[in-house]
Amino acid sequence: MSKPTLAVVGATGAVGTVMLDILTNRPDVWGEIRLIASPRSAGKVLRVRGEDVVVQALSPEAFDGVDVAMFDVPDEVSAEWAPIAVSRGAVAVDNSGAFRMDPDVPLVVPECNPEQVRNRPKGIISNPNCTTLSMMAAMGALHREYGLRELVVASYQAVSGAGVVGSDRLYDEVQALAGDRTIGTVAGDVRKAVPDLSESPFPAPIAFNVVPWAGSLKQDGWASEELKVRDESRKILGIPDLKVSATCVRVPVITTHSLAVHATFEGAVTVEAARAILEAAPTVVLLDDPAEGVFPTPADVVGTDPTYVGRIRQALDFPNTLDLFVCGDNLRKGAALNTAEIAELVAVEFTG
């Protein structure tokens, strides 16, 4: 049986570029890999698996003969084009937020709910938000053993989560402020020193600062990213009544999201037992020796695939609760890698 054909939609974007690197280094389960992007990117030549591939313009005909189509594009593009890909015979694996909470579209993390890839009445499988994804491998492993009941999460989100424009903004602000040693003091006004904030994807300066906001404003002062953490965690883990509260913060880091997680379980759980479970999880790396300065940071994690976990502690004054710190590359496992892993699960259906 021939290998299935894969299409990568949004191949020239930030996540799409990472996807091409991942496909080059993943198991060789695909036959043709077709690259699709907006008409302005059509004709570009990109390297995939050691071969030059010409980017095609997004059109219905581009999906003819495609078995699986991975979408790394904005919500509105996925909302329009994923159903078109399905109508041309492809299974769509979507990395946007367009379908995540659709009850007829599974939201999949292969470490947590791989069986859901076959439950796709609309022919679409959704990939979670990168913030939620950063903790799912660890939380899924602990939930299977102890039964997760409550999550309180503070995220420290990299600027690349806002796309290339987010990374460029941080670089521009750092360049504008470099050498000014008054910045951050009474004498240094960061808002006046950085480029025009009206052109920024962030509502406040991001260099030498943290911004307690990610996403758009929702009801009662919540940010959209915070509600995604709650709603997506419930759906992925299959716990519709999971209690979740999140505060999402943008930090001056280019790549890799971090989360401080306060997790409460149905029964008693010890630090030692949690460490053993996480060490056994194939996509989790445990870095947890604070006495020796060993714990995960974005600088350790960027460019790698696993979820990194450290600072595991028994929560003070809270029974059946652990506190831990999680890091995951938001462009790899947080987006491209998880999408590729979902697509590989679907590929098995074509190859037997």
Give a written overview of the molecule:
By secondary structure, this protein is an alpha/beta fold. It has two domains: 6-127 and 336-350, NAD(P)-binding Rossmann-like Domain (Rossmann fold, 3-Layer(aba) Sandwich); 132-158 and 210-328, Dihydrodipicolinate Reductase, domain 2 (2-Layer Sandwich). It contains nine helices and 14 strands. It has helices spanning 14-25, 75-87, 130-146, 164-177, 190-193, 224-237, 271-280, 298-301, 332-351; strands at 6-9, 33-37, 45-48, 51-54, 56-57, 68-71, 91-94, 124-126, 148-157, 243-250, 257-265, 284-286, 307-314, 321-328. The chain has a six-stranded parallel β-sheet with strand order 5-2-1-6-7-8, sandwiched between helices. Helix 1 (14-25) links the parallel strand 1 (6-9) and strand 2. It is globular.
Secondary-structure-derived class:
alpha/beta
Question: Superfamily at the CATH H level of the largest domain?
Answer: Dihydrodipicolinate Reductase, domain 2
% residues in beta strands: 15-25%
Let me know the number of strands.
Answer: 14
Q: With helices defined by DSSP (H or I, 4 residues minimum), what is the helix count?
A: 9
CATH class of the largest domain: Alpha Beta
Evaluate the radius of gyration: 21 Å
Oligomer: single chain
Helical residue percent band: 25-40%
Average pLDDT level? 95
- In which order are the strands of the major sheet placed? 5-2-1-6-7-8
CATH architecture of the largest domain: 2-Layer Sandwich
Uncertain stretches:
none
Distance between the termini: 9 Å
Order of helices and strands: EHEEEEEHEEHEHHHEEHEHEEH
Shape call: globular
Major β-sheet profile: 6 strands, parallel
Q: What is the CATH fold-level name of the largest domain?
A: Dihydrodipicolinate Reductase, domain 2
What is the number of independent domains?
A: 2
